[in-house]
Amino acid sequence: MASSIDLLLVNSPGKDRVYQSLADDLIAFEPPIWAALIAEFARKKNYRVEILDAEALQLSYEETVNRIKEKSPLLTVFVVYGQQPSASTQSMPAAIDVHKRLKANTPKLQTMFLGTHSAALPELTLKETRANFVCYGEGPLSIEQTLIQLKSATPNYSQISGIWYWDEFSKPCGNAMTENIKDLDEAMPGMAWDLLPMEKYKAHNWHCWDHINDRQPYASLYTSLGCPFKCSFCCINAPFGRSGIRYFSVEWTIRQLDILVNDYGVKNIKFADEMFVLQPSRLLDICDHIIEKGYDLNIWAYARVDTVKDKFLAKLKQAGFNWLGLGIESGNKNVRSGVDKGRFVDLDIAAIIKKIQDAGIYVGANYIFGLPNDTFESMQETLDMALELNTEWANFYSAMAYPGSPLHQTAVNDKVALPEDEGGPGWIGYSQHSYECLPLPTQTLKAEEVLTFRDYAFDVYFNNPKYINMMKERFGDDVVKHLEFMTSHSLKRKNTLPRSDFPEIFNHHIGS
After folding, report:
1. How far apart are CA 453 and CA 344, in angstroms?
2. pTM score, two decimals?
3. Left if phi > 0, otherwise alpha if psi is -120 to 50, otherwise beta: which for 339?
4. CB of 373 within 8 A of CB of 407?
5. Does residue 342 surpass a pLDDT of 50?
């Protein structure tokens, strides 16, 4: 029987294992951006396309499998990304499990894996998943070529660029890389919002400090692809083959906002670009269009400390950019320089953050513990900096050598223990919030010491009286109550140590 649809794009369920007790109420449910872009690309080519966002629908693995079987698509693509650019690897276990169950039931279904992790490790992904295809480029063109071959009476997979597949001898075989799309607007004229369960998406808690009980509806979108920077801990550019950035037009971006606001009533929006605050003229043009529309939006976007300029802060705020996410990473200049993020080593980070906040924009600061040169003392510097800056939100991460990042290749070459090694937890070990989380050891610290310090830093920051008082004054009692609820969720960890073993370290901030 012929397939009813040509292409089914699947976002697998996996939040419970990735985020533990945070999954239900504290994290965001985000639309799968890449699935929506690829769906629109395929529809433009007149393919019959659907998206199954099993994560947003909160389906079980078996329910997800049954939905796929009911659709019986010509090609099922597991689109494995995540809520942050580095979150593809942590999402792999769920996708692999769903795929395994699917193939056990319907072995003839043609399947593909796509995402940052797959792009970084395509041959390994093919062997591990036993999928028919693995894409190691950005995806749309490879998917189109795969559909063409699957519809052919005599498929020739060697003609498909940007994939790994099984040859006629059941051996893994990789083809040449696909060229990246040059004209994004023409190839992907929009996002397939109508194929998504838009009523299911919910913003991060902190994104809505101004209206903590009103986190829906919510959406996220890209206005560009890639990043021109080369931070050693980042894997964002793995699907693109190199660093660099390509833009959707300002008009394309505004069309997406028009749809979200007018068709779906969305106010809370994430601009998921790895570096949105970068090109001043484009940034100001987008702001001017939003202001002209008169939309009342609550947007957050990523910036760098060295890309934030005084001249556009007021315009950002007027357009509804209420949050900027900044990668501060470390409070120690030498540690920060050691991960190729050293362009702002000598900048006054506190002064820049104050300028942002003086413009009425909140700051989500990102810190990493356990970078290669880190010691207990330098991690303490990072925590001290976080407490001093006292931003409205802070993310505390453990350093991970994510597949696709230069740090991962260095770790492999140096034979540093990684989650995927024999005896390790596997890909779920790359999840910052999972029970099995296993960070990268440093030159002087064990992985367990890094993770213990990270969890300690989170507790200190969000229970700090200075922070609580600021939040009460700025956002009111409802947000303070929410913070109390949030900090009551203590993550279960396999790889942490008793803090009592390090009294000289973990008692440092008691009563601060």
Report:
1. 25
2. 0.94
3. alpha
4. no
5. no
Please tell me the distance from the alpha carbon of residue 238 to that of residue 114, in angstroms, as a whole number: 11
DSSP codes, 324-367? EEEEEE-S-HHHHHTTT-GGGTTS-HHHHHHHHHHTT-EEEEEE
Residue 336's pLDDT band, with cuts at 50, 70 and 90, is confident
Side-chain-facing half-sphere of 371: CA atoms under 13 Å: 29
Rounded CA-CA distance 318/361 in Å is 10
Contact 372, 445 (CB under 8 A): no
The domains of the chain are located at 7-174, 202-506
Tell me the C-alpha distance between 259 and 475, whole Å: 30
Average pLDDT, integer, range 351-365: 97
Closest to 453 in 3D by CA, of 506, 489, 504: 506
Q: How far is CA 375 from CA 283, 332, 370, 442, in A?
A: 38, 10, 8, 8
Point out the least confidently predicted range of 154-163, 230-239, 331-340. Answer: 331-340
Phi first, then psi, for residue 118 (nearest 5°) are: -60, -40
Q: CA–CA distance from 387 to each of 215, 350, 352, 371, 404 (Å)?
A: 27, 11, 16, 19, 32
Alpha helices in 441-476 (DSSP H): 447-462, 465-475
Q: What is the pLDDT of residues 474-490, one digit of tens each?
A: 999 999 999 999 999 88
What is the Cα 496 distance to its own chain's centre? 24
CA distance 382 to 387: 9
Burial class (CB in 10 A: 0-12, 13-18, 19+), 13: buried
The pLDDT value given to residue 310: 87
Give the tens place of pLDDT for each residue, 155-203: 999 999 999 999 999 999 999 999 999 999 999 999 999 999 999 999 9
Half-sphere exposure (Cβ direction) of 418: Cα atoms closer than 13 Å: 18
What confidence tier does 29 reach under pLDDT thresholds 50, 70, 90? very high
Nearest Cα to Cα of residue 133 among 100, 102, 167, 105: 167
Distance in angstroms (rounded) separating the CA atoms of residues 99 and 102: 5
Q: Report residue 230's pLDDT band, with 50, 70 and 90 as the boundaries.
A: confident
- Give the tokens for residue 32: 């799968």
The CATH superfamily of 202-506 is: tm_1862 like domain (3.80.30.20)
Summarised one tens digit per residue, pLDDT across range 386-444 is 999 999 999 999 999 999 999 999 999 999 999 999 999 999 999 999 999 999 999 89
Classified by CATH at the fold level, domain 7-174 comes out as: Rossmann fold (3.40.50)
CA distance 445 to 370: 8
Q: What is the DSSP letter of 44?
A: H
How far is Cα of residue 247 from the mean position of the Cα atoms in its chain?
Answer: 19
- Please report the sign of the dihedral spanned by the C-alpha atoms of residue 90, residue 91, residue 97, residue 103: negative
Instruction: Give 393's strand partners.
Output: 364
